[in-house]
Specification:
It is a single chain. The protein has about 475 residues and is an alpha/beta fold. It is globular and about 65 Å long. The strands form two sheets. The chain has a seven-stranded parallel beta sheet, with helices on both faces. A two-stranded antiparallel ribbon has the order 6-7. The protein is built from 21 helices and nine strands. Helix 1 crosses helix 19 and helix 18 crosses helix 19. It is about 50% helix and about 10% strand. It folds into two domains: about 90 residues, uronate isomerase, domain 2, chain A; about 325 residues, TIM Barrel, CATH 3.20.20.140.
C-alpha cells in the first residue's frame, strides 16, 4: 500500500498524484453526528473512533468467530480493539483490510500491519495521538480536506446543531442537513402515528388529514432549505408505484392515523402520491433527490430484538425495480417537475437497469441531471466500484459522474475517497494503456477532477445561509 497502491500504470499514477489526490471532498451523504461536530468531540481511544456503530466491522468480526460481548457487548474498549486486531488479518480481499490500514497511515502515521502481536503497541501509539487537540472531530475533518458534509436527518429533527454550526465562526466546513422522511412514508409501521404526532409538534400545527400532513412536510423542507439543505434521501427497500387520487390517499391516511393497518395496495397508493408530492417540492427548490433501493433489512429477528436496527443484519434484496421506478420518474417528468435525481441499488444486478433508466430522463440543460449513484454499501469495494463505473461508462456519460460519498458514521472514513479516486484513475489509465482513449492529460485531468470534486460542486450548488444572506 505504497504511494502507487491500486495504480498499475504510468497514466494512472500521473492522474492520481497530479489531478485527483489533493482535490477537496464533498461528502453529500453520510451518517455523521452534527452534535459531535459542533461539540468538537475528542475520542477516548481508537475503539471509540473505529468500532462504535460500525456495522461493517461488526459483520466481519462475527464471521471471524468473535463473541458478541467483544463487538457490541460490555467488554472493555481495549478487548474490543484486540478482537478487531485478531480479525483484520483474516479480512484480506475485503475493503475493510485496506481501509483499516489507510486510516492508520493517513491519520496516525502507523504503517505496521495490524495484528494480535502488535495490537498493544498500536493501541498505545494511536491513543497517545488522540489525546492531542490535533485529533478532535473537527481537526480530523480538516485533515481530510472536506469542504461540505451532508448529514442524514429526520424531518422532525430540530437541526439545532446545524444552526449552531452555521452561527459559529470557528469552523469553515459546511455541515448541512439532508431530508430523510422514511418514517413518514412507512405507513404500516408501528411508529407511524407517533411520528406524525411529533411532526405536528415541530410544525406547530395539527395533523388530522392528509392535506395538513403534506403542509407540515412542506414546512419542514423549507426549514431544511433555510439551513442550507439541498438534498433529500429516501430508503426505498421495495420500489412500488401506482397512480392514485388525493381523495383516496386522504382516506388511507386517516385510516392509518386511527391505528388501523392498510393493505399493500393502499400502502402503494399512499407512498406513490406522497413521493410525487415530495419530488415536486424538491424540484421547485433545486434540490437533488436520492433514492436508495433494494436493501433487505433486519433479517435476523432475534438480533433485531436484542440490538435494534443498523447493527449488521441487513443484506441485498432482489425485487424487480425497473417498471415502478420508471413510472415514478415519469410521473414527475410528465409535469415537468422531475428534480435532479441520484439512483442507487444495493443489488449490483440492477446496475444496467439504473444506468440505462437515467438516460431516459436526462435533459433540461443540466449536465448529469440524472445520476447513477456510486457503488453503495456492500458494493463500495474494488470490484463493486469498478463494475458501477464501467456500466455507467458503457451506457451513459462517465465524465459527468458526481463521484464518491462516505455513507459512514466514522470520522476516519474519508480515506474511502482516496481509495475511490485511485480506482477511478487506474480505470482511466487502463483505457489509456489499451489505446481506448488518448493520453491527453488536459482532457483526462479535467474529467478526473470532475469526478473527484468539481461535478458534485456544480451539481448540488451547496450554499450556506451566510452566503444566501450576502447574495440578498
Amino acid at each position: 500500500m505504497g504511494e502507487n497502491f491500486l495504480l498499475t500504470n504510468e497514466a494512472a499514477s500521473t492522474l492520481f498524484h497530479q489531478y485527483a489526490k489533493d482535490m477537496p471532498i464533498i461528502d453529500y451523504h453520510c451518517h455523521l453526528s452534527p452534535q459531535e461536530i459542533y461539540e468538537n468531540k475528542k475520542f477516548k481511544n481508537i475503539t471509540e473512533a473505529w468500532l462504535y456503530g460500525d456495522h461493517y466491522k461488526w459483520r466481519a468480526m462475527r464471521a471471524n468467530g468473535i463473541e458478541e460481548e467483544y463487538i457490541t457487548g460490555n467488554a472493555s474498549d481495549y478487548d474490543k480493539f484486540l478482537a478487531w486486531a485478531k480479525t483484520i488479518p483474516m479480512a484480506i480481499g475485503n475493503p475493510l483490510y485496506n481501509w483499516t490500514h489507510l486510516e492508520l497511515q493517513r491519520y496516525f502515521g502507523v504503517y505496521d500491519l495490524l495484528n494480535e502481536k502488535n495490537a498493544p503497541m498500536i493501541w498505545e501509539k494511536v491513543n497517545e495521538q488522540l489525546k492531542s487537540e490535533d485529533f478532535t472531530v473537527r481537526e480530523l475533518i480538516k485533515k481530510s480536506n472536506v469542504e461540505v458534509i451532508c448529514t442524514t436527518d429526520d424531518p422532525i429533527d430540530t437541526l439545532e446543531y446545524h444552526q449552531k454550526l452555521k452561527d459559529s465562526d470557528d469552523f469553515q466546513v459546511k455541515v448541512l442537513p439532508s431530508f430523510r422522511p422514511d418514517k413518514g412514508l412507512e405507513i404500516n409501521r408501528d411508529q407511524f402515528v407517533s411520528w406524525v404526532e411529533k411532526l405536528a409538534q415541530v410544525s406547530n400545527q395539527s395533523i388530522e388529514n392528509y392535506d395538513q400532513f403534506l403542509t407540515a412536510l412542506e414546512s419542514r423542507i423549507d426549514f431544511f432549505h433555510e439551513l442550507g439543505g439541498r438534498v433529500s434521501d429516501h430508503a426505498i427497500d421495495t420500489m412500488m408505484f401506482t397512480k392514485a387520487k388525493k381523495e383516496e390517499v386522504d382516506s388511507i391516511f386517516r385510516k392509518a392515523l386511527a391505528g388501523e393497518k392498510v393493505s399493500i395496495e393502499e400502502e402503494m397508493k399512499y407512498k406513490s402520491y406522497t413521493l410525487v408530492f415530495l419530488g415536486k417540492k424538491y424540484a421547485s427548490l433545486g434540490w437533488a433527490m436520492q433514492l436508495h433501493i433494494n436493501a433487505l433489512r433486519n433479517n435476523n429477528t432475534r438480533m433485531l430484538a436484542e440490538l435494534g436496527p443498523d447493527t449488521g443484519y441487513d443484506s441485498m434484496n432482489d425485487d424487480l425495480i425497473a417498471k415502478p421506478l420508471c413510472r415514478f420518474l415519469d410521473a414527475l417528468e410528465s409535469e415537468k417537475a422531475l428534480p435532479k435525481t441520484i439512483l442507487y441499488s444495493l443489488n449490483p444486478n440492477d446496475n444496467p437497469v439504473l444506468a440505462s433508466l437515467i438516460g431516459s430522463f436526462q435533459g433540461g440543460g443540466v449536465r448529469g441531471k440524472m445520476q447513477f449513484g456510486t457503488a453503495w454499501w456492500f458494493n463500495d469495494q474494488k470490484d463493486g466500484m469498478l463494475d458501477q463505473m464501467k456500466t455507467l461508462a458503457n451506457i451513459g456519460l462517465f465524465s459527468q459522474f458526481i463521484g464518491m460519498l462516505t455513507d459512514s458514521r466514522s470520522f476516519l472514513s474519508y480515506t474511502r475517497h482516496e481509495y475511490f479516486r485511485r480506482l477511478v484513475c487506474n480505470l482511466v489509465g487502463e483505457w489509456v494503456e489499451n489505446g481506448e482513449v488518448p493520453y491527453d492529460l488536459d482532457m483526462l485531468g479535467e474529467i478526473i477532477q470532475g469526478i473527484s470534486y468539481n461535478n458534485a460542486k456544480e451539481y448540488f450548488q451547496f450554499t450556506s445561509v451566510l452566503e444566501l444572506e450576502k447574495e440578498l
